[in-house]
Every structure is written in structure tokens, then in C-alpha cells.
Amino acid sequence: MSDSPVSPSTPTADDSVVTKQQWKWSALAGMASYLDAGSIVALAASLAAFQEEFHLSKGSVGALQAIGPNAIGCAIGAFVGGWLGDKLGRKRIYQWDLLVYAAGILCMALSVNAGMLFAGTFVVGVAVGADVPTSLALVGEFAPARARGKLLGFTQVAWCLGPSVVLWLAMALAPLGLMGNRILFLHLFVVALVTWALRRGLAESARWKAAAATAREQVSALLSPSNVRAMIWTGTIYLFWNLTAGTNGAFGAYFNRVLLGGKDVSAAHAQAVGTGLASLSFLCTMLATVFLFMPFSDRSFRARKWLWGVGSILQIVSWGMLMFVPYTVPTVFANTILFGVGAALAGEAFYKVFSQELFPTLQRGTAQGITFGAARVLLGIWSFVAPMLIDDQNPNFHALALMLTLFLVVSGAVGFFFMPDTSGKSLEQIAAERARS
Fold first, then answer.
1. 77 and 134 in contact (C-beta within 8 Å)?
2. Could you confirm whether domain 27-204+223-436 is CATH 3.40.50.1260?
3. pTM attached to this predicted model
4. Could you tell me where the DSSP H helices lie in 70-147?
5. What are phi and psi of 256, to 5 degrees?
6. Which of the four, 117, 133, 216, 365, has the lowest number of CB atoms within 10 Å?
7. Domain boundaries in the chain?
């Protein structure tokens, strides 16, 4: 595929019509989200089995999550990959990082000791961290102005589909024990290689090529007042939302196995129940993204505010109620539905959209790498703490529910009251308005 003048990535192609090629490119770029979320949940679903196989302490379980795709490893990849994507181009990064991902995920699948498991987890985190900001910048740069939310929301569908497939496989393969968990990682290995092969036909971002031809990338430009304000705002809404979402994604199945085992369900079925509830959450997010976020996120500034406000309230209620009611299957079911729908409306999808809209082309990947990476670092630190708060003597985990609720309150309030009006505007128009202000 060549960079023809009529390529859908051409900077002037800013209408509301999405071509078949743009959908295809969005799907291939969005596979970064599939592999990111899929690896997080595959590790989460395998924690108990690996803990038993390699005799890992609770501290080691937290450390494993902290260094991988959910946290610090991903952060390192995002910092470096976002900057290199701005400096060298989107294609040079997204074309090769999936091979690194495949090597790391294969190491996890074939691990025979804790060292191999930890090494593979870290490599996977770095690779997926480099891919996410680069791939999202590509989508934002070829998307039409009045369909940017739709296409970036489409990548969020992939983010939901990845863990859903992993969790469904986990339920089907549960009788195989640890071998079933290894198959989960092998599935991601195959998907990574297929995606890498298909991406080889993607063209470079036309917006990046145009910007790189007329200006030299300046890191200092990232520190302009408008860029700093944008990083603080996008970083805040994503950080505090991700502390809750990341805890749920990384430890949800683990928490359910510990807290539901021997209570509402037998210990033998606790893992299956927990996995089923987790997959339901991703399914709810996927459906809400398709039927609510994608159709309405580009309509107007007012529509964006309504989506964010409703989504924030649903998420706050979902975790706030667990401070007052027992941790049982019905309450976890309610939490799953409310949080799943709310996350589609006031979560990572809008963070992706605003991270493309609020930064100039030659700082877009770097800025998103910084905010994405910082959020994952703090989630990594938090991952050491979260498992320590859960045991079978603390079935309601009020302290953890309180913390997760407060995180969502901060994200929801900052997002709603300080949301910028960028809906329906081209990236060049947004940049010009921010420069004037």
C-alpha cells in the first residue's frame, strides 16, 4: 500500500465519511489494544495457577503485575515508543514492536520457572507500551474530524474483545489447569504474528510526514503552557480512572476466586464464576462503546459532556455500593454491569480521543506516552498494595472499595468540569485555536 495523494490519511480528508480503508487501518492499529488488554487479563486469569506452580508469595504476585503490560513495563515502552514515534515516524515503531511482543508472550507461555515468567511479562509490557501511543496517533491522524471519536472508539472495541476472548478461552480451558493458561498466551502469540504481517501494508501517517517535512521535532515544544495543561488534564482523568480499571482488570478474577470461594460458590467453581463475571464486564463495555460512544462522541461538545457525566456516575455507584454490601455473586454482578457500561462512556475511549486532539503532530506520541506511561507506573506501585488488602478474612474489602471509588470521583469530576471543546474540529483547527489561546 502506497502513500498516494488520495490516501485516507491525507491531512485534508476531514469530513464525516469513514472509508473502508480507514476502518481497516483502524482495526489493524486497534489490535494494539487487543494485545494490551488481552495480555493483562491472560496474566490475571493465570495468577493463581502460576502462584501455585512456582510458589509465589502475595508480594511476588503483586510484583508480577507491576512489571508487566498493566504497569511499569508498559510505562517504559510508552515513554520510549511515543517519543520515537514522533521522531522517526509511526510506521517504524508499529511495524516491529509486535515481534518483540511475540517473543515475550512466547516466553511466558513456555515458562518453566519464575524467572522466565517475570522476564517474559516485562518484555510484553515494554512492547505493548511502545505500540499503544504510536498506533493511536496513527488512527487520530487519518480519522475524519467528525468521525475521530468513532474510529478511536473502534479501537476500544478491540480493547474489550481481547480480554473477552481470553476469558472465554480461560473458562473453556479451565479443566486443563496450568496448561490451559499457557494456551491463553499462545493464542496471543499467534494473533501478534498475524497482526504484524498484516500491518506491513500500512502506510506512514500523512500528517506526520507533512509535519516532519516542515519542522524539526522539538522536545521543548512539549513544555508550552497549552501542552502542559493538556498533559495534566488527560493524565489526571486517565490516571485515576486507570487505577480502578487496572485493579479490576488485573485482579478481578483473582479477587473473585479468593472472596467467592467457599461462600456463594464452591472453591472449585469460584474461578469459573469470577472469570465469567469479568468477561461480562468487557462485553458490557464493548456494547456500550458500539451503541453509545461511537455514535454520539462526535456529535457535539454537549453530547460528550453528557456521555462523560453519565458514565462517571455509573462507575462511582458500581464501586461505592461495595463499601456497604457483602461481596456476593449478585453484588459483583451489579458491579460488573454498571462499571462495564460506565467505563465505555467515561474512561479510556475518551482519553484516547483527547490525547490525539489536544497535542500537535510532532508532540502527540510523546505526550501520550508520558501520560499513559505515568498512569501505568502509578498503577504498578498500586499493584503491590491491592492484593495485600484482600484475603478470606476481609470478605467485603471496604477499604479497597473506598479507594477505587475515590479514584473514580477524581477522574469523573476533572473530566466533566474541565473538558475542552474540540468536537468536530480538524486537528489543524484545534492546534490553531490552542496556539491563539
1. no
2. no
3. 0.88
4. 72-88, 90-94, 97-109, 114-142
5. -65, -35
6. 216
7. 27-204+223-436
Is residue 340 a contact partner of residue 288, using CB atoms and an 8 Å limit? yes
CA separation for the pair 429, 206 (Å, rounded): 17
Name the residue among 103, 145, 116 with its Cα closest to residue 13.
145
Compute the distance between CA of residue 57 and CA of residue 62 in angstroms, rounded to an integer: 9
CA-wise closest residue to 27 among 123, 129, 145, 162: 162
List the grid coordinates of 216.
Answer: 524539526
- Reference 383, options 29, 45, 68; nearest CA is 68
- DSSP secondary structure letters along 300-366: -HHHHHHHHHHHHHHHHHHHHGGGTS---HHHHHHHHHHHHHHHHHSSHHHHHHHHHHSS-HHHHHH
pLDDT tens-digit profile of 171-224?
A: 888 888 899 999 999 999 999 999 999 988 888 888 999 888 876 545 667 888
> What nine digits make up the cell of 428?
489543524
Contact between residue 30 and residue 95 where contact means Cβ atoms under 8 Å apart: no
Instruction: Say if residue 50's pLDDT is above 70.
Output: yes
